[in-house]
Structures are given as C-alpha cells and as structure tokens.
Amino acid sequence: MANQSNKNINTNLTKLVNQPYKYGFSTKIDKDRIEIGLNEDIIRLISKKKNEPPFMLNFRLKAYRKWRSMVTPSWPHLKFPTIDYNAITYYSAPKIKEKINSLDDVDPELLKTFDKLGISLTEQKRLTNVAVDVIFDSVSIATTFQEELQKSGVIFCSISEAIQQHPELIEKFLGSVVPIGDNYFSALNSAVFTDGSFCYIPKGVKCPLELSTYFRINDQKSGQFERTLIIAEENSEVSYLEGCTAPQYDDNQLHAAIVELIALDNASIKYSTVQNWYAGNEQGKGGIFNFVTKRGLCTGNNSRISWTQVETGSSITWKYPSCVLVGENSQGEFYSVALTNNYQQADTGSKMIHIGKNTKSRIVSKGISAGHSKNSYRGLVNITNQAIGARNYSQCDSLLIGNNSNANTYPIISVQNSTTKIEHEASISKIGEDQIFYFLQRGISIEKAVELMISGFCRDVFTELPLEFAAEADRLLSLKLEGSVG
Amino acid sequence: MSSNIPLLDVQNLTASINEIKILKNLNFQVNKGEIHAIMGPNGSGKSTFSKVLAGHPTYEVSAGDIILKGQSILELEPEERSHLGLFLAFQYPIEIPGVSNEDFLRIAYNSKLKFENKNEVDPIEFFSVITEKLEIINMDPAFLSRNVNEGFSGGEKKRNEILQLALLDSDLAILDETDSGLDIDALKIISTGINQLMTKDKGIILITHYQRLLDYVKPDYIHVMQDGKIIKTGTAELAHELELKGYEWLNSIN
Question: In A146-286, where do the E strands start and end?
C-alpha cells in the first residue's frame, strides 16, 4: 500500500534526522551561583561580582527599567510558554580560586569537558590557526593565543576583562549598534549579561588568526546572556566564529545574546556561527530558547560585514543578523542554513538597512524542515531615500523533508528611491520518495543520498564558512538528518 | 554458479498498489545471453513490473518470488538488489538538484566496489573510468559537471541512464521505455550502446511500445503483457505482427 510504504519511508527519514545529541552531557563542578530571580538588587550583585565601573551599573539599571516597560514580541511565527524570568539564575560560574595565569590552573573537569566537545584548550592540542575564547555558563574560562594576538595589536579577550582593561572602548561602543531598548530581549541582555567576547582590530591590521568563541551552557537553572562586541578600525580585517552546545535537560534554558559589530572605513568583518544548542527531544521536550540580536554597523566607506550562520539546534530560534549600511559603497551579506527537526521552531532571517550611497547587500537563506518542525524566513530590505544606487539580491530557498514539516517566508522590501536595483528569488522543494529511490537503485544508501542532496542545497552557504568549519557544518547537518528521509 | 540457473526467475508474482492488484500471478524467466522485450498496452503493468523487480517501496508483493541468479531478492532493499547486478533504466529519470552528475556516478560506482570488497577510486582515478564509458553513448565530458538530469533534454536523460548501466556493468538491465521521446539519431546512439554492453553472461529486458527500438536491438523473445500477466510469448516476428494488427488482435485470438 502506498500509504504504508510512505509511512515506512518517513520513518526511515525520521530515524536519519534523529541522531542522538552527542553534546548532551553535563559537567559536575562547584559553582558560584546566585539565587534565582530578577530585580535591581540582583543586577547590583552581578555588577559587584564582576567589579564593574559605575557606568556599567548605570547601563544595566537603565536597561532593566526599560525592559520592565516592554512586552515579549508576539509577531514571530513561534509558539512557546510564557517564560518565568524569576525562575532563572542570572549568574552561575565555575568556582575558581584565583585568577588563572596558565591553563594548567583550570579545573581539569572543565578541560575534560571541552576536550569532549572537541575544543581542546591544552597547549599541545590547540587548533593551530584559531584563537578561542571559551564561555562556560556565565563566565569566560580561558582565551587562547592572547599573547600572539597582542603582538599585532589585536585585543581579544572576554568582555568582562575588556570592561576592566579597556573601559573607554566599552563605554564608547557598547550599545551603540544595538541600543538598550532595541527590543525586549536586547533590554534583558543589557541588564544581565555576564560575559562574552571582545575583539578590537587596530588600523591597518589583518587579524593573523581566526577568532572564535565557544559557548557552553552547563547549569540547568541558569540562563546564558552573552554579549559580543567586535570593532574593526580603518583598513582592518577579521574573521570570527562562534560555536555553541548545551547539555540535554527536560526543561528549557534561556539564551538571549547580543552581538554588535562595527566596521570603519575599508574594514571587513566576517562573522560565522555554527549553532548546535540542545534542540529538545523527539516529543519537543526541553531544549534551548534562543533569542538573539545580532547587528553590524558598516559606518565606514567601503566597509563590509558578512554574517554566515548554520543553525541546527535550539528548541526555539529567534534571530535576525542584520547590517546597517551607513558608509558609502559599504556591503552587507547574510548567508544562512537553518535546519529544524522534530518540534523545533525557527523564525530567522536578516535585515539590510541601506542608508549610504551605492550600498550593496546580499541575502542567501536556506531553510530545511523535517519532522513536525516550523521553519520561517523573515527578512527586511529597507532602502532609504539617501541610498542612491543601492542594490540588493535576496534568495530564499526552502527544502521540506517528510509530510509534516512547515516552511514559511516573510520577505519585506521597502524602497524609497528610484535608483535602486533589487532582485528576489525564492524556491521551495521537497526531498521526494522518487529521488531517494533513484539513488537506492544505483546502489547508494539512503544516508548518503540525503547527505548529497542536503550538502548540494546548502553549498552556496557552506562555501562562505571558514575552511575548518565548512566540513564540520556539512557533517553536522548530515548527522542531524540521519534517518529522516525515506 | 551453474550456468543453467536462470539470470532472473519470476514465479507467480502478485503485486498491488493501494490495494489494487496490478501484477497477477506473473511468471517470467531470463537466461544468460538473452534479450527479452515486453510489450503491451498502456496500464498493462509493464512499468509496475520493472519497479517491483527493483524493490520500489510503493508496491506491495503479496505472493510469488523473484529469484536473481539463484537467490531470492524479495526481502532485499533496493540498494542490495542493485549491488547484486539488477539495473533499472527509468522511464522518467528524475532531476536531482545540487548533486553533480560526476559525484553521483562516482558514489554509485564506489558503492558497488565497496560491496564487492574492492578498493574505492578517488575522483582522479574515476575520471579515467568514466571518460571511457562516455564514448559508449557519445557524451561530452562537460555533461559530468551538470547536476543529475537537471535541465537535461529527454535524449540526454536516457543517455545518462545507459551511461550508468555501462558504469555499473550490471548483469540484468531492465530498460523501461528507454526509446520513448528519442529522435532517430539518439535512438541509434542508445541502441549501439546497449548492443555494446550485451554479453553472453548478461540479460536485458526491454519494455517498449514500439517496434522501432527492436529494429536496432534484436530481442530473442517478445512477450505481450496485459492486465498484469504475460498473455503471449513469441519471437521477433510477433512484434511485427503486433505493429500491423494492434493489441486488439490478441484479444480476438485468445
């Protein structure tokens, strides 16, 4: 019977997609954790624990008061229970006796955790051309290659360290791209963020290493609110990658991050993300709620910001990496692969705001939905009246696997001058039974068939990833999809 | 394996889709070195037969057996049947966006090598393997870098099927209306290719509506299928008679 066999095929496909999450373990470690709840005293406590200058406490309190006056956005195509912000711990850090001078002083339990995640912090095994900042729950554990980077004048450290060492840069730039009151989650993050990465590339320097931050949520009750700030001075260049994983818990953890990028004249920032937070189980229980505000400001002429994301994890993803193109001839790019499976929901896309003359932007979005998941692309291309000669190219492709998944696209284009050139392409396709059968008849296994089709579908995005991570992303997607096609 | 075992032995095969019986007690044999043609009106079950042989999951086999080179393949997955030497050239080869023909062909070839416990070939070694095969069907190497069947003309799609057959060197080839939609030049190229691939150890089943393919690829036997059964078997002469008199003629003599 056709129905029966279609069911078999879908079960095979589902098995293929539903590989166990291999980063779901948790680490037992002594924690310095403050009690649950959110109020001004908690914020004062966080600021005090971090020994922050007064301008930071004011920043946080202002954000908290703003947040109190706001409501959760209801426009995304997402369904989730009301989050009880008073049931969350806003600071949880592994207990560290003193300031760490060498990695030998890091708790071996932590080193083991990161070894298991494939991020080796020990000297011998480090990735040779990538400097890594490692964030565990609320704090940065270690940053590798700091000295090497300093030789070229690059500052790469945790944002807590930057607040201590470079307060003038923080005071000037923090919140300059994503204002405190930009949205509900940005206000929350501004009030309670505990760590993140800071990166400053001086004039004329091409950063000699790939920079990378690895985020790990370990604590069951804590939220992770990290803050990343990257400043690329005139004629500088940097490529940055973030990776994320979390243990497998039955309840949801909240992750609300902000990333701000600033590119001055002729500067170029390439920001790549491979997001693999725990996505919840096959029934949709557990998983990370991921609410992220990422925005880049191309303030300089001929500057360029490029976002590349591979989103495979999280129970809920709400994320729109954007570019504000102020400088003349500046360029913004967004390349995205978002994969949802089981009951995952993703509402993601990009905003390109054209202000300067001859600004250019490019959006390439690939959504893959399997299982009962919902995958939405939401985009805004806004060409203002000053943006003479602006150009945009957008491409949104959706791929459906199985019969129960859902794909939506909500592209908005707003043009306020007549010298603009805009192209928009969209497609939707399905991995069908007959395509799979064609592979099988030629002796190719179903796993290999899906892997080939998915990597073909995502090729335009994967070629944008730094070389070391392109293969990883390819592997990750096939792993996530194993068993889902049939 | 003793040489008197048939290449393919289909015994009392009954198969259905959506609980509608399509194949009814079908019996069919192919010996090594034989070319069989199956003709018959639309809807008689010819394409279903080819897909059931290849193990398409939409069809349910409720009775009978399919024996390939002495081994029942009824319980085997489509890819296992392929590895054992069964090849189906599709009537409508499907387009596979994003996957290059070259990758597809190489992975299919390597899957077979792996099954036979041989060393797989790298892309450079494969290039010389495939270049040789391209000559059989007179194909430009540029066609390797295009996506599988995507934007191919009808003739190119059919030639690509024969190229895959040549590459996998399968023992039993089922060609489902490989001649349909071809102009006379393409038909000649494909027929020449098929004849080159045929050896005394292999077998071919040609499913066709028309005599014209049989002018180029000479079958040893012709079968007429109707309502899920073989109702008549004869020599090449039968095809000529059918061409003249139509299928209705068979109904009148039965």
Answer: 155-158, 197-201, 210-216, 227-232, 237-245, 252-263, 268-275
- What are the phi and psi torsion angles at A483 (to 5°)? 90, -5
- Mean of pLDDT over chain B: 91
Q: Could you tell me if residue A418 is inside a domain? A: yes
Express each pLDDT in A91-137 by its tens digit: 877 665 444 455 555 666 666 666 666 655 554 445 555 667 777 66
B8-253 domain in CATH 3.40.50.300?
Answer: yes
Inside any domain, residue A45: yes
Cα distances (Å, whole numbers) of residue A155 to A163, A230, A459: 12, 10, 33
SS (H, E, C) A94-131: ECCCCCCCCHHHCCHHHHHHHHHCCCCCCHHHCCCCEE
Q: Which of A215-224, A251-260, A296-305, B226-235 has the highest mean pLDDT?
A: A296-305
Q: pLDDT tens-digit profile of A304-332?
A: 999 998 888 788 899 999 999 999 999 99
Domain that holds residue A407: 26-432
Question: What is the arithmetic mean of pLDDT over B10-18?
Answer: 94
Q: Phi and psi (nearest 5°) for A426?
A: -145, 150
Beta strands in A155-223 (DSSP E): 155-158, 197-201, 210-216
Paired with A270 in beta bridges are: A239, A306
Q: How far is A308 from chain B (nearest CA, A)?
A: 20
Which amino acid would we find at residue B136? I
B222, B236 Cβ separation under 8 angstroms? yes
DSSP string, B197-243: H--TT-EEEEE-S-SHHHHHS--SEEEEEETTEEEEEE-HHHHHHHH
Q: What would the pLDDT profile of B72-118 be if each residue is shown by its tens digit?
A: 999 999 999 999 999 999 999 999 988 999 999 999 999 999 999 99
CA A465 to chain centre: 14
Residue A467 contacts B, CB cutoff 8 Å: no
Polymer length of chain A: 486
CA A455, A311, A462 angle in degrees (round to 5)? 35
Q: Domain-by-domain residue ranges, chain B?
A: 8-253
Q: How many CB pairs under 8 A join A and B?
A: 89
Whether residue B29 is predicted with pLDDT greater than 50 in this model: the reply is: yes
- What single string gives the DSSP state of each residue in A388-442? TT-EEEEEEEEEEESSS-EEEEEEEEEE--TT-EEEEEEEEEEE-HHHHHHHHHT
Closest CB to B82 among A4, A432, A442: A442
Kindly report, residue by residue over B154-209, the tens digit of the pLDDT. Answer: 889 999 999 999 999 999 999 999 988 888 888 999 999 999 999 999 999 999 98
Q: Cβ–Cβ contacts within 10 Å for residue A88, how many? A: 18
> Residue B204 and residue B178: Cα distance in Å, rounded?
12
CB atoms within 10 A of CB A230: 24
In this prediction, residues A232-257 reach a mean pLDDT of 81
Tokens, residue B186: 């393409």
Domain count for chain A: 1
Q: Which residues 99-118 of B are in CB contact (within 8 Å) with A?
A: 99-100, 103-104, 107-108, 111-112, 115
What is this model's ipTM? 0.95
CA angle A461, A467, A468 (to 5 degrees): 115
Residues recorded for chain B: 254
